[in-house]
Amino acid sequence: MFDNIFNEKIMQELQQQLRENKKTITCAESCTGGLIASMITELSGSSDIFNGSIVSYSNEIKNKKLNVKKENLEKFGAVSIQVVEDMLEGSINMFDADYSLATSGIAGPTGATKNKPVGTVVIGVKAKSGDKIVDVYHFDGNRKEVQIQAAKTSFKIFLEFFQKTLDK
């Protein structure tokens, strides 16, 4: 189901960039359910750039393990910029990584609201230095297609973000 050419090319570039700059990455995933971590570790030798990740599917785990603020969960909901910002910070701290990717969204077919339809995914990238980018995306398709699009988009965003933070 994965686009293997895209996946391998992106993963090779991501790992090469991180290795050349002696940086590590982690991720905190909700709607992607570990897909991002799986894609990173698909290539042999990823342990030098990837210490681990967390799938924080429930709000309780987001709060207890990633220190996502209860008030952010209650006020904005799990699928929000505020929660993904907390997930980024929590995962960088948990895994002592230089960079983190985080996703939270509604892959469907259930879980949608009027303001957050199926396919709504918040994706964030953060550097240990504090630089970050977090935005809301909308993907079409069934559950698996939304998850795959969210993961692929995360990597594209990360590579652009990584280059910008290195140029500083």
TrEMBL record:
InterPro entries associated with the record: CinA-like_C, CinA_C
CinA C-terminal domain segment(s): 8-160
Taxonomy, superkingdom: Bacteria
This protein's name: Damage-inducible protein CinA
Taxonomic lineage: Bacteria, Pseudomonadati, Campylobacterota, Epsilonproteobacteria, Campylobacterales
